[in-house]
Design brief:
Blueprint (H helix, E strand, L loop, with lengths): L8 H9 L3 H12 L7 H21 L2 H9 L2 H28 L2 H22 L7 H26 L2 H33 L3 H20 L16 H7 L5 H30 L2 H25 L5 H15 L2 H4 L3 H30 L3 H5 L1 H27 L5 H12 L1 H9 L6
Helix pairs in contact: 3-7, 3-8, 3-9, 5-6, 5-7, 5-17, 6-7, 6-9, 7-17, 8-9, 8-12, 8-15, 11-12, 11-15, 11-17, 11-18, 11-19, 12-15, 13-15, 13-19, 17-18
């Protein structure tokens, strides 16, 4: 395949029917090319992802705080997040079957529409949202599952191993840019507005941005689907001795274990330390600015041969940053830990993501079963997140001190090191 060209679904299917063609493309092509440029479809997909990230960053950062204000309950926020993860897991399975047989863009747009419905429902419920937290989490999880399943399938089809690190670097950069500006703007606006008025306006803006992303997605090419979805294919990979997914899935679960808790708890601790949404917005600004710069640099410099060493350094660094909170859980300590984590996170997340998607395209069979394998990937992540949330709920049921939460963050924050141990042999270099 020529450098800089997009591999359409049709071309992938043709390659898969040629013996050893796909495997050669994956193994030899990456060795011959250091990098590959991103095509128009990849750029459009990045634009959709960027708008999606901006809409979530604008409001999603403050949803746990909003629910806290409505309920004053640590456990309720945990149940909201748990329902979200379980619903997203179910959505991944259902969407996997759908995109295998039908248009992938439909599932992607459905995810954007459900995200809009989530914020519309929160707006309509107002202060009663806390009573419906689990159902709101399920709706948001449905949106997440539909969008990211379709997104990941399309991402796999329009990138090559040689361009995958670059795409992931740009995706991380856009996410960081959104995470830098949007929460700072919304946090400042909410603080200045007072009460719930600011929340209502910010949630409305996010709703509109999801709708705009759905419209932009119509410029992406309709991608044909092939074959039928196998509900047991993923499980079969885990039962086969020597299958690389037996290492990849536990590594993904370790990534998810950390994410399940960190995605909402750090933001809550920042709010508890200051009592101001503006402080949470400022915290997110500085951590996302650091992440933006580090993702940009990693996306330019990281090569497949560096993945093993880079991921180890990233996993060790982000695991160690949380130790700062054991001595002090004030705003300054939280900011130092957050900035340090953002600095090293690309070294962990880019090799992890690229290596797993390279597994999808390693064989002809993997290309044919890309939907099933992406569902398997997400199943590993969600299993880890559910486990992390179960630990969180068990802890807050017994103690609700800041010190206990800091120890919890330290424990789950070490999970990426275990993830590296599982997947290290599948990393290049």
């Amino acid at each position: 395949m020529a450098q800089g060209k997009i591999m359409s679904a049709g071309n992938m299917a043709k390659a898969a029917r040629r013996p050893h063609a796909q495997a050669g493309w994956m193994a030899g092509g990456a060795a011959r090319r250091r990098t590959a440029s991103l095509g128009r479809q990849a750029v459009l997909l990045l634009a959709v992802q960027g708008m999606y990230a901006a809409a979530n960053a604008l409001s999603g950062t403050f949803v746990p705080v909003y629910l806290w204000k409505a309920s004053q309950s640590f456990a309720l926020i945990g149940w909201f997040t748990l329902a979200q993860q379980l619903a997203s897991g179910c959505a991944f399975w259902l969407a996997g079957a759908w995109v295998k047989r039908h248009d992938k863009m439909t599932a992607l747009r459905a995810g954007l529409v459900c995200s809009s419905l989530f914020y519309l429902t929160v707006l309509l419920l107002g202060q009663e949202a806390g009573r419906w937290a689990a159902w709101l989490g399920a709706l948001n999880g449905l949106a997440v599952g539909l969008f990211w399943l379709a997104y990941n399938v399309v991402y796999f089809e329009i990138t090559e191993p040689a361009s995958r690190d670059r795409f992931n670097g740009w995706a991380g950069l856009l996410g960081s840019l959104a995470g830098m500006t949007a929460p700072w703007l919304s946090g400042t606006f909410i603080s200045l507005s007072g009460g719930t008025k600011g929340y209502r306006i910010v949630f409305t803006v996010s709703l509109a941005m999801f709708a705009a992303a759905a419209l932009l997605s119509f410029f992406l090419q309709k991608r044909r689907s092939y074959g039928t979805f196998s509900w047991t294919y993923g499980a079969a990979q885990l039962r086969t001795r020597g299958n690389p997914w037996r290492s990849a899935v536990p590594a993904l679960a370790m990534q998810g274990l950390r994410e399940g808790v960190y995605l909402f708890l750090l933001g809550l601790l920042v709010y508890f330390a200051t009592g101001r949404e503006q402080s949470l917005g400022s915290y997110t600004f500085w951590t996302s600015l650091t992440s933006l710069l580090s993702f940009w640099l990693a996306g330019r410099l990281l090569r497949p041969r560096f993945r093993r060493a880079a991921m180890l350094l990233g996993a060790a660094s982000i695991s160690g940053m949380t130790a700062i909170l054991l001595a002090d859980a004030g705003y300054t300590a939280l900011l130092i830990a957050g900035v340090g984590t953002a600095l090293f996170m690309p070294l962990y997340i880019i090799p992890m993501t690229s290596a797993v998607f390279d597994l999808v395209g390693k064989t002809e069979e993997g290309v044919k079963r890309r939907e099933e394998l992406i569902v398997l990937r997400e199943t590993g992540l969600i299993a880890g997140r559910v486990l992390g949330l179960a630990v969180y709920l068990a802890v807050v049921a017994r103690v609700q001190s800041t010190a206990a939460l800091a120890w919890l963050l330290l424990a789950v924050g070490a999970a990426p090191l275990a993830g590296w141990l599982f997947i290290r042999r599948k990393l290049a270099g």
